[in-house]
Amino acid sequence: MTTVATPPTIHEATLGGNGAVIKGAVIDLSQAATIRSRGGEIVVCGPDLGANRRLAGLIERNANGATQRCIPHESAGPHALPHFQPKLRPPKGHTFYETATRRAF
Amino acid sequence: MRPPLDGPFDAAMQFFTPDLYTRFNSDDDDVADQANEDSEDAIRAYRARLADIQVRLTDQAMQLRNLCLHDAELLSAAHVSNAWAGNGTAGQDAITLTLRLDDNVYNLVYSLSARISESPPITGHPFSPVCMLWMYDEVDLASEAGGAFVHRILWSDGRVVAIPFTSVIIMVAPLEPPTNIAEDRLMFAT
C-alpha cells in the first residue's frame, strides 16, 4: 500500500504575540511571490518539513533573489517559526515554514 | 588611575553558533534536517541556561535578553574610554551600538567590564560581507561569580562580538522625521 504525501499549502500570514505566525487564506505560488516582493508575510504549512522548506525557499528566491534561512528567534517567543528572507533588505517580511514541532496558528 | 580592563573575552557563541547557522542553510536535505533538530536543541539549551541564571540577571540584562534585534543593521559602534568619569574618579569604558530595525533606531549603551573581543568574519554562504546585520545573540553571566554579564552577537558576516558589561541602557527612537517643529527651534539646523 502506498502513502500519498500531503502537499504543503501556502497561506497569507500575520504576526501574533510570542513569535506566533497566524495563517490566513490559501494562496498560490504567484500570489505568494507577489506578497513577498512587496514585503508581506506568508507561511508554508504541511506535515513534511523538507517539502515545506523547499517550497518556502522557492517562493523567496522567486520573489527576492538571494535568500537566507533563519533559525527561529528565541527572543521573538516560543511560537517563532523558521523562515526564509532576502539576504539583503528590503523588502521586509518573511516566508515562514512549519516543522514537526512548530506550527502556524 | 583607571584600572585596565580585563580580557579579551571569549568570542564564541555558546548555542547559536556560526556552524549551526551554516548547516541550517545547507541545500542538502539531510544536513538541513539535522540542523533543524540541532537548532531546537540549541533553543532548549539556551532557555535552560537563562532559567538557571535568571535570578542573577539585572533588569537591564533581562531587557537585553528580551530584545529581538534580528535583521537590525549596525550603523555605528562607538567606543569611549574612561566614560562617565567625574570628580576625580575613574570611569568605566563604554561602547554604544547604533542599529536600525524597521522604522526605529536603537542605541545600546554598555558599561564595559572587560575588553570587547571578536572573531574574524567567515567567508561564503550564508554569510555576507556586504553589511553588518544582527543575526543571533546570547546573554550570559561573564563569570559564575556574577555581577557582570556578556552579550555575544553573531553578525551576518559571520563575526561574533562578545561585549562584557556591567550595565546597559537601551534607547529606541522612531525614524520618522519630526513634524510641526519650526526650523529655528532645531538646535543643530544649518
Can you tell me about this structure?
- The complex is a heterodimer of chains A (105) and B (190).
- Chain A is an alpha+beta fold.
- In chain A, 24% of the residues lie in helices and 29% in strands.
- Chain A has two helices and six strands, in the order ββαβαβββ.
- A six-stranded mixed β-sheet of chain A has the order 2-1-3-6-5-4.
- In chain A, α1 packs across α2 (49-64).
- In chain A, 43% of the residues are buried.
- The model of chain A has no long low-confidence stretch (mean pLDDT 93).
- Chain B is α+β, with helices and mostly antiparallel strands and 190 residues long.
- Chain B has one domain.
- In chain B, 21% of the residues lie in helices and 30% in strands.
- Chain B is built from three helices and seven strands.
- In chain B, a hairpin with a 7-residue loop joins β5 (134-141) and β6 (149-155).
- In chain B, α1 (18-24) runs antiparallel to α2 (29-53).
- The longest helix of chain B is centred in the first third of the chain and has 25 residues, at 29-53.
- Chain B is globular, with a radius of gyration of 19 Å.
- Chain B starts with 17 loop residues before the first helix and ends in a 16-residue tail after the last strand.
- The mean pLDDT of chain B is 86.
- Chains A and B meet through α2 and β4 of A and α1, α2 and β5 of B.
